[in-house]
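Practice problem 4.
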């Protein structure tokens, strides 16, 4: 099969190469998926560049997320799954076989049935962002009837956080930096969209009452705003480490009795990941989740796809093996 792979860390154009390699066979408890689309996330370029290096065997095929069709199963897996359309998550977590290839092999529970009518493009967009959003929203209990502030509602995690929050019965406020991103956030179903660069941002957010939970993409930049609008005793959940680390205003956090939670998908308990997969699939089946604008790259252009994500391209970057 053809696959994008690297065997050392560095810039995408220098280390990521497309090569013909032996197609993997599924082992016990595994399935093989013929990939239709591979989703690219910031974690992929960070791992490849060495910014957040992870152990690597002889080589690494990148990308955790994807969509495709199961074409082989290992021992202990129901043969009836052959031919099933699936979305894939965490394919490259501790494994060589990411989704930037014509085939991948994953544990059977990481290949989740894709509901009828859901596109491969949307299926490949889930994984890391949708499961991160689910954990941020629900790690501290149900959110029905609550008001959720989603920072960066035009990003992939923000997009699915808005849609999943609405699916679970919450009201959603989101912050963005401009008109294009505001339109994306409104299309996702946010009840209120606020430009965080405006001096009136705090007052606009507070117009819907105190916030019960903040889903935060830039804790260092936004903590002061978050503390100004959050309900005492509530939670700020941070899922990204870009930008400067925050200087923690201890007294202000004490006054707010705020809980700071940090989420990195690789450390989330397996049971929570499986529940997230079930809930995300239910939301898909109900029509609650939608695509972001898609930017497609061929497998030969996998390096360019990763560079596009690193540069902050708005929308979802996908690699199409065929």
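Answer key:
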């Amino acid at each position: 099969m053809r696959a994008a792979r690297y065997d050392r860390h560095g810039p995408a154009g220098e280390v990521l190469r497309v090569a013909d390699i032996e197609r993997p066979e599924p082992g016990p408890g595994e399935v093989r998926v013929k990939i239709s689309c591979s989703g690219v996330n910031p974690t992929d370029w960070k791992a490849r560049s060495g910014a957040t290096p992870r152990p690597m065997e002889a080589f690494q095929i990148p990308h955790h997320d994807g969509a495709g069709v199961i074409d082989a199963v290992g021992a202990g897996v129901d043969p009836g799954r052959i031919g099933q359309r699936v979305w894939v998550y965490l394919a490259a977590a501790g494994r060589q076989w990411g989704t930037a290839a014509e085939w991948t092999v994953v544990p059977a529970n990481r290949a989740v049935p894709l509901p009828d009518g859901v596109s491969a493009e949307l299926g490949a967009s889930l994984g890391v962002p949708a499961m991160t959003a689910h954990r941020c929203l629900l790690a501290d209990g149900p959110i029905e009837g609550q008001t959720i502030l989603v920072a960066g509602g035009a990003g992939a995690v923000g997009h699915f956080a808005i849609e999943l929050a609405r699916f679970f019965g919450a009201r959603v406020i989101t912050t963005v930096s401009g008109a294009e991103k505001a339109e994306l956030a409104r299309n996702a179903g946010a009840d209120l969209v606020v430009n965080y660069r405006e001096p009136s941002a705090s007052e606009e957010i507070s117009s819907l009452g105190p916030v019960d939970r903040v889903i935060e993409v830039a804790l260092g930049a936004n903590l002061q705003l978050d503390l100004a609008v959050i309900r005492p005793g509530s939670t700020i959940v941070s899922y990204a480490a870009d930008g400067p680390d925050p200087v923690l205003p201890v007294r202000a956090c004490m006054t707010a009795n705020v809980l700071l939670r940090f989420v990195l998908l690789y450390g989330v308990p397996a049971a929570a990941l499986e529940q997230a997969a079930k809930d995300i699939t239910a939301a898909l089946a109900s029509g609650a989740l939608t695509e972001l604008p898609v930017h497609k790259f061929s497998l030969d252009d996998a390096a360019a796809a990763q560079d596009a994500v690193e540069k902050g391209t708005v929308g979802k970057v996908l690699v199409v093996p065929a």
